Amino acid sequence: MLFAAVSTSNQSRGIWMKAVISAAVLSGVMLAGISGAAAQQAADPEAVFAARCKGCHEPAIGEAPDRAQLRARTSGEIVAVLTTGPMQSMAAGLSAEDIGALAKLLGSTPSEGAVAGAGGNAPASSGPTFAMAPPDVADRLLKGLSPVTPAVLQSPAPGDWLHWSRTNDGQNFSPLKQINRTNVGSLTQAWRLPVQGGNGMPVPMVHDGVMFLNTNPDTVLALDATNGQLLWKFVYDLGGRVASQKMGLALAGELLLMPTSNLHVVALNVHTGAKVWDHEIALSAPATDRGVFNLRSAPLVVGDRVIQGVTGSAGPGGGYIVGLDIATGQEVWRFYTIARPGEPGGNSWNGAPLEKRSGGSVWDQGTYDPKTGLVYFGIGQTYDTAVLATRSSDPGVTNDGLYTDSTVALDPKTGKLIWHFQHLPNDQWDLDWVFERQLADVKVNGKNRRVVMTIGKMGILDALDAKTGAYLFSIDPGVQNVIASIDPKTGAKAIDPVRVPDPNRPTLICPSASGSRSWPATSVDQQAGLLFVPLTEICMQFSSKGGPLLSAPGAGISNAEHPDAVSDGMMSRLQAFDLTGKKLAWRHDLTAPLSTSALSTAGGLVFAGDLDPALKAFDAKDGKLLWTGPLDNYASSFVTTYSVGKTQYVAVVTGMRNYHINDISRRYQEFMRGRGKPVPPNPTGAPAIQVFKLPG
Questions:
Q1: Those residues with Cβ within 8 angstroms of residue 253's Cβ, 6 or more apart along the chain or in another chain
Q2: In 3D, which of 647, 536, 504, 530 has the Cα closest to residue 582?
Q3: Of 307, 425, 576, 658, which residue is 20 to 30 A from 43 by alpha carbon distance?
């Protein structure tokens, strides 16, 4: 068993898997399970380590960390890699108890509940206990929940946060302004609630004074948003499957929509938490292994459709998006994110048969624009880049690989593709464009345009006409070196030939496959004409050494520092984009990487959490740091704000783990160690939701 030292994000599982398999084959490690005498001692973590891990880690081979380096990771992080990360196949056959014992042996002290939660089959009574709301308060709050109609979803009450980004346009902006640039320095903790540890990047959602929060394993909490007291709790029975990392939930009517770790979408009654329907998403041929597919994103509700993206990773045939009937949960339509042979775009795969086409994962949430009547999703890269590496001599095919690295605009009623724009054809670097699509009114060449915008792993913003998909403009913050130029009319990107994978030509690639940005969402203050994005400055080295990059022929990767980070000692920045001027605005450089979404408000603020760890508030007009709220563990969620009565609150979840947190925390420690500076210890605070407000 090999914990690859090469950093990975949730889109780069293939990097880890290739490195793991290669090293395992070289070392003769037994992958299938413990046999003979070792099997009889499976409960002994040292025996498990000897049978599955020792060949790669003691002594360490290739890029694998040794046991001392593994000790720098928390047991929760090790559980995450073994259960929901790229090492799942290497842990096949181990029970949750065995995995927990192994993680405790190898890692540092676990956070409260992390092992049980990540195990996925902990009983509903395990983990933190919750203070119940008084019956009269619970009755008042739950009965007072008003239906979330389509009109309400489109224009929610100022104090509500009904959607992963508050509104269906993906702007992550709040009109609340009780907390503002003049008083934010006085923020204090309103309440804190320990939650079950594990993997995730949740979104605290609030409606009519009730908070809905997804935690582990596949659990939903309904809470009094003023104090965190429990109203009801729902735990989905995974039937032994481990819980995967997910982003959030969705509200519609009197339903709460919940994606599960075993490819189900479940509807709950918001008043009681009772299950209304449970739909199992079926696989599509040629895929046969349900374990390869996951639901990472929150559902998107448009009218009578519940729209859910599916990640396909390396599964044959790739990912897809499904539209379910909101009344019954039954599937109405399915859009395949990997173009099928004989269908539009099907000739863009170098002539490869469908079973050789993979990827196209839908990792992030979709958005909806009532002005165009369309929904928008981002599509991930392929996991077998060798298929596309060299273009076929057949003039009737290309190696663009549709619809990877694309924005797709769909009819929400039927799933029909209306238009697509491919931001990066033939992605050989795992630098995809899968994150949120945001809608805004922007003046372009003197005319008001409805635009859909997205920022990929390279940090480049592309803006398109929301109705037609026509290219409008790009803004490059300068953290990448793969794209040499962008055609101002078409948006076509010219690749620097030096950056094409070639084992005989070592070269620095910026950013790394983890991306200069990952799932932490951007925020748009449309009135100010600004967009805010959390960026991390990290790179990777291409050469014949290191772990393989997906399946790029012969090219290996290893971690490398970003020249800008080396120059100023800062690994991260909160970057503002001027949408009106189509240029960069202010930036605030940070030593510690940002780890949450950005949240902008009408109070002139931008909130974001980092690995200090802290939640911070910046002035939206110039980036000045106005407030720092120390945390006892990494902020690892979307940051949201809401109000109940006359009080505004700001909420963030801490202590959860996910690929992004694991990546950047490890790289941050390496960076500090390389500078000869004190290495930040792994935080030990129990996973929790932490909520702040002004005094009084």
A1: 147, 148, 149, 326
A2: 530
A3: 658
Rounded Cα distance, 440 and 427, in Å? 28
- Report the interhelical angle of 75-83 vs 96-106 (nearest 10°): 140
pLDDT tens column, 594-622: 999 999 999 999 999 999 999 999 999 99
Q: What is the CA radius of gyration of the chain?
A: 24
Residue 550, Cα to own-chain centre: how many angstroms? 19
> Is the previous residue joined to 681 through a cis bond, with omega within 30 degrees of 0?
no
- Closest C-alpha among 81, 72, 75 to residue 116: 75
**Cα 647 to the center of its chain, rounded Å:** 30
Show Cβ contacts of residue 61 under 8 Å, excluding neighbours closer than 6 positions.
2, 23, 26, 27, 55
What's the DSSP call for residue 54?
Answer: H
What is the C-alpha separation between 312 and 220, in angstroms, rounded?
25
Residue 557 · residue 549 · CB < 8 Å: yes
- The pTM for the full model equals 0.85
Q: Find all residues with CB under 8 Å of 455, minimum gap 6, and list them.
A: 435, 461, 462, 517, 522, 533
Contact (CB, 8 A) for 311 and 296? yes
pLDDT one-digit tens code per residue, 655-691: 999 989 999 999 999 999 999 999 888 898 999 999 9
**Which amino acid makes up residue 230?**
L
Both tokens assigned to 5: 């030292």
Length of the chain: 696
Write down the residue that tokens 């920045």 correspond to.
573
Asked if residues 536 and 556 have their Cβ atoms less than 8 Å apart, the reply is: no
Pairing type for strands 647-654 and 173-174 reads unpaired
Residue 550 near residue 430, CB atoms below 8 Å: yes
- Side-chain half-sphere exposure of 638, counting CA atoms within 13 A: 32
